[in-house]
Write a structure and sequence with these properties.
Two copies of one chain form a homodimer. Chain A is an alpha/beta fold. The first copy, chain A, folds into three domains: 22-65, 434 Repressor (Amino-terminal Domain); 76-173 and 303-330, Response regulator (Rossmann fold), CATH 3.40.50.2300; 176-302 and 334-341, 3-Layer(aba) Sandwich (Rossmann fold). Helix content of chain A is 40%, strand content 17%. Chain A has twelve helices and 13 strands. Chain A has helices at 22-29, 33-40, 48-61, 67-74, 92-103, 117-129, 148-152, 176-189, 205-220, 236-248, 261-271, 303-319, and strands spanning 3-7, 79-84, 107-112, 134-137, 157-160, 170-174, 195-199, 229-231, 255-258, 279-283, 297-300, 327-330, 333-335. In chain A, helix 1 packs across helix 2 and helix 8 (176-189) packs across helix 9. The longest helix of chain A is centred in the C-terminal third of the chain and has 17 residues, at 303-319. The radius of gyration of chain A is 27 Å and the shape is elongated. Chain A starts with a strand and ends in a 9-residue tail after the last strand. The model of chain A is unreliable at 1-15 (pLDDT under 50). Chains A and B meet through strand 1, helix 4, helix 5, strand 3 and helix 6 of A and helix 4, helix 5, strand 2, helix 6 and helix 7 of B. The structure holds a DNA duplex.
Chain lengths: 344, 344
DNA sequence: ATGAAAGCGCTAACAT
DNA sequence: ATGTTAGCGCTTTCAT
């Protein structure tokens, strides 16, 4: 139940009503509208006394310029959008996007796509209707040709984390194949021969890429692919079953590579105490990885660079819409903590 | 490669640059501007043939209405702001805010205050200049009187998680004192007598409230407060020292209450293997709490309700600016997982 | 049922 | 150095 306490006076007891506009400020200061605009925009060609009068009027009326009108008139918003899977979930890439954007004097408008294609489209189109200066998208679906008119209209768009099909846009992604290779070799070097992979569904781009890279590792290592590669939905039952098959078959796996953060946590939940005996290298770092027992060895994405580059690519395209499309691959790195070093 | 038709249209086939406006659509459809506006806004009083012609023109030109101009003219934006400590960090309250806002047909503009008073002010004022329909704030500083002019101008503002001093605004908070009480009693019932508290600095509102509540518990239980309550910065060294003092004094604590998520993770890092022998109840749930060994017993905030109520309070005030200010307290609940059930 | 014209609050040419 | 006058792209009286 909730406790509620009410009070009767209005929110803060001051005078309510319509906001002052520049016209009001101009009248109050006894100057022309244009002069107020000049002061607000720090135009140096305003006489000191006029400027002072205007500033006094602004303070007296508590005037705050209407950003909507400004942006409408100037044509630019100083705002970029980020359409990511989920804001409000640990998202270091988004954190980097925000930091970099702010450093560049840009406001960030972030929205969640919830991993839903339709929702992504709504979110991105809404950003376009707001005439943001550009949009960073963590793309969901297989075709993004719905963006063609927007790109033609000149809206700069950058893909982060995954590529966009159907349109030519700048993009930044991690080197997924290299990451899987690092994880695999790490376990091989620790003496493992039977190494299994559990990861995201191959309908998802990263799931597809990482599973493919893992298969390539097995083949290159002369190991049969059979019974070792389990892409699929991130679903407790599906993962539990994959684990059983991988660990209790005729030639059971002694080590495991997990394909992304969500898969990793579900795998750990399924393993329970068995996690202390199975070598694991996880793709994607997870919060508190160092507090697990054993602590989790991971292949970490360079999230700061991913997000930072996304913003820089966007800024570059805003500055020069005709520059050649650029696709950046960011290296990943291994963080050794214990789980990947368990013996076979 | 696709063959190009007559005009040189650039890589994706459309004409670059100028976006069509309603005037263009009107000309293309051979109707008045007003009619286009009617169609865009689903006005039912448009003849079927006219409507069809307009829709065809909209599709032909890839017209997307300019949201800035719309909002400027209509006065409302259909957008609310959320100024929280950090977007892009696990924040279930923000998640609930987003979900509830979307369900109400509101767009959410979230920004990080980075726990910085100045930054909060910038962020919130920027939202006001954008004339958002309302703003939800996770407040930082001690005085928020800078918001008075905005409240007077009619901007609805709601505080979430912590109260705002200096202004009267609607607010939602967790029942901190009750949560600390639950944690304390839980440990007492498990036979603990010496229970210590480590939490956030008392400069922070929640840190202050929780430390005070814990002291009250000790007193009510007839235990000396001395050497058991350690509020302070969330800093590795500070926390390590507090732990040493609490656990290795003349009458060492056998159980621990941690005051928030960040404190909890630092405490666990400091404890290392000793965490398996010390009873701990943490305020705030943390991701992967169930994967720790022992799994972490927590007092969890009802984040869904916190965020949902914040949006509802905001909507209520938008609907009726003169309604009485309302302060809501949301109950917390205990999640038993193991760490809090270790014996003395 | 449709259209002409007047703004929303601001910035930007163009005077003065 | 300051003021006048157009718009930005849309919604909205108010006619027709």
């Amino acid at each position: 139940m909730m406790a509620r306490t009410g009070q009767d006076n209005g929110p803060s007891g001051g005078k309510r009503g319509k906001r002052p506009t520049m016209v009001d400020v101009a009248r109050e200061a006894g100057v022309a509208l244009r002069t107020v605009s000049r002061v607000v925009n720090q135009d140096p060609t305003v006489g000191a006394d006029y400027a002072a009068r205007v500033r006094a009027a602004i303070a007296a009326l508590d005037f705050q310029p209407d950003e909507r009108a400004r942006q409408l008139r100037r044509g630019v918003s100083g705002t970029i959008g980020a359409a990511v899977r989920r804001i409000a979930e640990a998202n270091p890439v988004l954190a980097a996007i925000e930091t970099t954007a702010r450093a560049a004097g840009l406001t960030l408008l972030a929205s969640s796509t919830d991993d839903d294609e339709t929702r992504e489209r709504e979110v991105v189109m809404s950003m376009c209707r707001r005439r943001l200066d550009g949009v960073i998208v963590d793309p969901i679906g297989d075709s993004h040709s719905y963006l063609k008119p927007e790109l033609d209209a000149g809206t700069p768009i950058v893909a982060v984390d995954r590529p966009m099909a159907g349109v030519m846009v700048d993009s930044v992604m991690s080197d997924n194949a290299a990451g899987i290779g690092m994880a695999f070799r790490h376990l091989v070097q620790r003496g493992h021969r039977r190494i299994a992979y559990i990861g995201d569904h191959e309908r998802v781009f990263t799931g597809r890429e990482r599973a493919a890279a893992f298969r390539a590792c097995l083949v290159a290592h002369g190991e049969p692919v059979e019974g070792l590669v389990y892409p699929g939905n991130i679903d407790r039952a599906r993962i539990a079953k994959a684990l059983e098959t991988a660990l209790h078959g005729p030639s059971p796996a002694t080590a495991l590579v997990t394909g992304n953060a969500d898969t990793t946590t579900e795998v750990l939940r399924c393993l329970g105490e068995r996690a202390t005996r199975l070598a694991i290298v996880a793709f994607d770092d997870v919060p508190l990885a160092d507090l697990l027992r054993p602590a989790l060895t991971v292949v970490a994405q360079n999230t700061a660079e991913l997000g930072g580059t996304a913003v820089e690519l966007l800024r570059a395209r805003i500055a020069d819409p005709s520059r050649p499309v650029q696709n950046v691959t960011v290296p990943v790195s291994m963080i050794v903590r214990g789980s990947g070093e368990l013996p076979a």
